[in-house]
Amino acid sequence: MIGPVKNNEQYEQALGQIYALMQTEIVPDSKQSDELEVLTILVKEYENIHLPIPKPNPLEAIKFRMEQMEMTERDLSEILGYRSRKSEILSGKRKLSLAMIRKLNEALHIPADILIQAY
User: Comparing C-alpha atoms, which of 40, 49, 37 is closest to residue 15?
Assistant: First the structure.
């Protein structure tokens, strides 16, 4: 039976049910597919409230995207237009300006709400 997920025990049970359902061949628009969809929504809501994923700080986000995109510090300098300041920025000695935030958002596709955080 499907019910609300209000505590860790119910969360673990719902995850177990999801796992069991995913081990079967589910036909679209069947009782099992509806059950899987409802359980997934309940688990997602519980996780959003009780297990939120913290946002990375701006420097972590920049370094992570640079690594993903196989960028060098020189590439970052070209995006920002500052050759000497890139190391100050990456070390946290220099804060990001609004212009830098815009350029990083556009070039690296890092959400602005992450880039504007204090660090």
Answer: 40
CB 99 within 8 A of CB 106: no
At 14-36, the pLDDT tens digits run: 999 999 999 999 899 999 999 99
Whether the per-residue pLDDT at 85 is higher than 80: the answer is no
Residue 2 maps to a domain:
no
**pTM for the structure as a whole:** 0.63
Please tell me whether residues 67 and 86 are part of one structural domain. yes
Q: How far apart are CA 75 and CA 94, in angstroms?
A: 18
Q: How far is CA 93 from its chain centroid?
A: 26
All residues at 6 or more sequence positions from 107 whose CB lies less than 8 Å from its CB, including other chains: 79
